[in-house]
Specification:
By secondary structure, this protein is an alpha+beta fold. It has helices at about 45-60, 70-100, 145-150, 160, 200-205, 210-220, 230-245; strands at about 1-10, 20-25, 30-40, 105, 110-115, 120-125, 130, 135-140, 185-190, 195-200, 255-260. It has one domain (about 1-140, about 170-260): PPM-type phosphatase domain (Phosphatase 2c, domain 1), CATH 3.60.40.10. Strands 2, 3, 4, 5, 6 and 9 form a six-stranded antiparallel β-sheet that branches. A five-stranded antiparallel β-sheet has the order 1-11-10-7-8.
Length: about 260
């Protein structure tokens, strides 16, 4: 799996509070992708997102999956993610209590692990994970936000949500309390066919629709990946960030993309 990411401060912010990471692991059999969008006081959001990425990735990377059958693999990875989220939450929460300038800080987290054709997605907050193939583009994560709650309870439509005034209010985050609840989803990449993955902060998803994502990846798929194997991904990331900035760029923008084949 090839991957490429980039983060941009946007058009109105002075500090970039997003963090991201991508790495092959577990004897080159797996790939880990993570995006976090921090929140808090001056630079506190930056600390929260960086701490979450570093802690989460360190624990996942250092603990290879030893299971052999699919059900055991799912359970083992689920436990690894839960432990990593718990540790990241503990570190951020303790820092926020120790330093007054970091009080109340927290971060979203969306992560993807690809292992032997199994895609595992974990998320807390409203940073998102999409999968895009020539046939369809789908959001695999599920937002933890007030506006998503209104959509889920049929109080507003998805179209109304685009301009809802409390759109950025999230209902879950890493580090804002003594515990954090993570959602974990599993998907068999063989059922999707070859395609692309996108992990992003809401500074991107607020301006880039699923149709935009599909069109961008469709254009990217026609580009020769080049010697480094990421030319198509670099094109897609540049397009996503440009679109978000042209749309207003009110927040930090992070796009982490990957190309997989089955």
């Amino acid at each position: 799996m090839f991957y490429y990411g980039q983060s941009d401060v946007g058009m109105h912010r002075k500090i970039n509070e997003d963090s991201y990471w991508g790495q092959t692991m577990w004897g080159q059999e797996a790939t880990l992708l993570v995006v976090c969008d921090g929140m808090g006081g001056h630079k506190a959001g930056e600390v929260a997102s960086r701490t979450a990425v570093e802690t989460f990735c360190d624990l996942i990377i250092s603990s290879p999956c030893l299971a052999s059958n699919v059900n055991d693999i799912k359970e083992e990875i689920r436990k690894k993610i839960s432990i990593a989220v718990k540790e990241a939450n503990k570190k951020i929460f303790n820092l926020s209590r120790q330093y007054s300038e970091m009080s109340g800080m927290g971060t979203t987290l969306v992560a993807a692990i690809e292992y032997k054709g199994l895609l595992v997605v974990a998320n807390i907050g409203d940073s998102r994970m999409y999968i895009s193939t020539p046939k369809k583009t789908v959001q695999l994560s599920h937002d933890h936000s007030f506006v998503q709650y209104l959509i889920d309870t049929n109080k507003i439509t998805k179209e109304e949500a685009k301009s809802y005034p409390r759109k950025n209010v999230i209902t879950r985050a890493v580090g804002i309390g003594p515990q954090a609840e993570v959602d974990i989803f599993f998907s068999d990449l063989k059922q999707w066919g070859d395609g692309y993955l996108l992990l992003c902060s809401d500074g991107l998803s607020n301006y880039v629709s699923e149709k935009d994502i599909a069109n961008t990846f469709n254009r990217a798929s026609k580009i020769d990946p080049g010697q480094n194997g990421t030319a198509d991904l670099e094109f897609a990331v540049s397009e996503f960030i440009t679109t978000a900035n042209n749309g207003g760029g009110a927040d930090n923008i992070t796009a982490l993309t990957a190309r997989y084949s089955i």
